[in-house]
Amino acid sequence: MQSDRFAAGKVVALLQQAKADPKVIDSLLEHGFGADHAAAYHVSKWLELFKIGYNIWRLKIWIEPKGSLRYRIVYAYEPKSLQYHVLAIVHRDFDYKTDHEITKRILKAYNDLGITIH
Asked: Which domain holds residue 9?
């Protein structure tokens, strides 16, 4: 992402907005939020990991006219502390397979942070 300043700016802006706006924070745990392009972003659970107890989500930022940013924000939510943790920024071509090296790194970060596994 170092070479994509536009994408970096969009990601930082959305994270700053989320930090300041309770409505954005609340939407980050609403599976399917923004799928219809009614919001500036789309939220979805990482379903394969949810099924095995990980509270991991992905966020896609929409860009006009009907496309999306080349990167996704992968984050986790810790209900005990009410905190969100950005675990990775991945290219949109990332396939989310559970045996992928990036997935392994994301799960390691999740576990290292001590986030609850349900």
From this structure: 5-112
Which run of H or E residues covers position 96? none
Residue 117, domain member (yes or no):
no
Cα–Cα distances (Å) from 40 to 43, 53, 114, in that order, read: 10, 28, 31
pLDDT in tens, 69-100: 999 999 999 999 999 999 999 999 999 999 99
- pLDDT-derived band at 1 (thresholds 50, 70, 90) equals very low
Scan for tokens 């009410």, then name that residue.
Answer: 82
Determine contact, residues 59/53, Cβ cutoff 8 Å: no
Q: Is residue 67 included in any domain, yes or no?
A: yes
> Is 38 within a domain?
yes
Q: Is residue 118 part of a domain?
A: no
CA dihedral for 98, 71, 82, 47, sign (positive or negative)? negative
Q: How many domains does the chain have?
A: 1
The pTM assigned to this predicted structure is: 0.93
